[in-house]
Amino acid sequence: MTGMLETNVPSYPFGNDGLDPLLPHFAENGDGVGQVRLPTGQLAFLFTRHDHIRELLRSPDFSSDFTRPGFPLIRPLAEDMPRPDGSLIRMDPPEHTKFRRLLTPEFMIKNMRPLEPLIRQTVVDAIERLRAAGQPADLVEHFALPVPSMVICHLLGVPYADHDYFQECSRTLLAWKTPPEQARAAIEDLRAYLAGLVDKRMREPGDDLISRLATERLATGELTVDELVGLSTLLLIAGHETTSNMLGLSTMVLLQHPDQLRQLRERPELVDDTVEELLRYLTIVRTGLTRVAVNDTVVGGHALKAGDGVIALLSAANRDSDVFREGEEFDLHRGSHQHMAFGFGIHQCIGQPLARAELRIALGELFTRLPALALAVDPADVEYRDAVVFGVQRLPVTW
Amino acid sequence: MTDGLRVVVDRDACCGSGNCVRTAPEVFDQDDAEGLVVLRQPEPPERLHGAVREAAYNCPAGAIEVVEQRPGGAA
């Protein structure tokens, strides 16, 4: 591994060129592990096999804290980037454990069920607005973006009326082309917006997540205001960007597989398996998960030293032929229970019950209520987002 | 005779992803306070063994252990 010629080292991240993720040469030839060069010039080890990534993401020998030496940054950071208080995806145990347990009950399956009528109504209303927009209309603008945004706003207690503002900040933050200084400004704007909201909810609490944390966890000292602001920022971004991209891409994939779409329409009970297969096939966190080794350790037989940066390429693991036969094919009958689209390890997506409920309800209603739904654009001309999270920029449709 | 199966969960390791509850709701639950795994039946019947093994494999935190038992009680 260390003897590799520098000229063979691919640059990373690979970019978003289409539905099939771009994979390094060593994903298919060799043992699935190789070095990549990051935008900062640093080298990191990229893991692509399902079994290796399971082992890596469960291992206590790696840290998620990007301020640690050797951490593999996939985009350059502004020099005076503030430490992200409360951003639990960048924390390690035992600090991470404490924060995660404050939030877990909020997203449990049994606590998502009472939310389903609200999700369904949000979806139905969005379909009506899409119809009212006239054909062809952009499914992203009228459906894929507003539905998850409205739902996460309801859950967090963020006024949806502010959606233009926070969606714009979030888009700027996640776009590859955004220079580091501007990305820092976007995250500071979002935090300032949420700081204002937290302050308001401390005085006038409602029946929502931010109000509950503000009234129950600040006084006890379990959270500081800065940490609550950080947590809220993370949940607002993660809660609308990911599901939104999944909805746009999922619609496109299903429309491109008319036989399978017909089966789904005839047998609505297939929707759960369909959602799992879409999650596997699309794996929208295309850039993978970054970690730094904090001890000398071994993953999949590969020795790593403390300070080595590693990247777990989830999109490659989710097409690993040892686990998913003909993994490059979309097959809703696959029963893809072993996919890692939500990540793996203690940081696995906390909102996955919400994401699954939204995808199941939104796709079910969309294809039932619009039986003639069709792409109004050649699939080859669909423009993908130039962003950290994979998605379509626009999806013109008719019905 | 079929082999038995015993489930052991580690609440300290649990990260509350809820995968086990989705996969085998008759065997696993989550508590209301912290969302951590609660074992509903440590020795589930054979019809649930497949789901329990899948839940253990898919547990992101590795907090579920499945102990295969031979007839007669020897582990």
From TrEMBL, chain A:
<dbReference type="GO" id="GO:0016705">
    <property type="term" value="F:oxidoreductase activity, acting on paired donors, with incorporation or reduction of molecular oxygen"/>
</dbReference>
<dbReference type="GO" id="GO:0020037">
    <property type="term" value="F:heme binding"/>
</dbReference>
<dbReference type="InterPro" id="IPR001128">
    <property type="entry name" value="Cyt_P450"/>
</dbReference>
<protein>
    <submittedName>
        <fullName>Cytochrome P450</fullName>
    </submittedName>
</protein>
<dbReference type="GO" id="GO:0004497">
    <property type="term" value="F:monooxygenase activity"/>
</dbReference>
<dbReference type="InterPro" id="IPR017972">
    <property type="entry name" value="Cyt_P450_CS"/>
</dbReference>
<keyword id="KW-0503">Monooxygenase</keyword>
<dbReference type="InterPro" id="IPR002397">
    <property type="entry name" value="Cyt_P450_B"/>
</dbReference>
<dbReference type="InterPro" id="IPR036396">
    <property type="entry name" value="Cyt_P450_sf"/>
</dbReference>
<keyword id="KW-0560">Oxidoreductase</keyword>
<dbReference type="GO" id="GO:0005506">
    <property type="term" value="F:iron ion binding"/>
</dbReference>
<keyword id="KW-0408">Iron</keyword>
<keyword id="KW-0349">Heme</keyword>
<comment type="similarity">
    <text>Belongs to the cytochrome P450 family.</text>
</comment>
<dbReference type="Pfam" id="PF00067">
    <property type="entry name" value="p450"/>
</dbReference>
<keyword id="KW-0479">Metal-binding</keyword>
<dbReference type="GO" id="GO:0017000">
    <property type="term" value="P:antibiotic biosynthetic process"/>
</dbReference>
From TrEMBL, chain B:
<keyword id="KW-0408">Iron</keyword>
<keyword id="KW-0813">Transport</keyword>
<keyword id="KW-0003">3Fe-4S</keyword>
<keyword id="KW-0411">Iron-sulfur</keyword>
<feature type="domain" description="4Fe-4S ferredoxin-type">
    <location>
        <begin position="5"/>
        <end position="33"/>
    </location>
</feature>
<protein>
    <recommendedName>
        <fullName>Ferredoxin</fullName>
    </recommendedName>
</protein>
<comment type="function">
    <text>Ferredoxins are iron-sulfur proteins that transfer electrons in a wide variety of metabolic reactions.</text>
</comment>
<dbReference type="Pfam" id="PF13370">
    <property type="entry name" value="Fer4_13"/>
</dbReference>
<dbReference type="GO" id="GO:0009055">
    <property type="term" value="F:electron transfer activity"/>
</dbReference>
<dbReference type="GO" id="GO:0051538">
    <property type="term" value="F:3 iron, 4 sulfur cluster binding"/>
</dbReference>
<dbReference type="InterPro" id="IPR051269">
    <property type="entry name" value="Fe-S_cluster_ET"/>
</dbReference>
<dbReference type="InterPro" id="IPR001080">
    <property type="entry name" value="3Fe4S_ferredoxin"/>
</dbReference>
<keyword id="KW-0249">Electron transport</keyword>
<keyword id="KW-0479">Metal-binding</keyword>
<dbReference type="GO" id="GO:0005506">
    <property type="term" value="F:iron ion binding"/>
</dbReference>
<dbReference type="InterPro" id="IPR017896">
    <property type="entry name" value="4Fe4S_Fe-S-bd"/>
</dbReference>
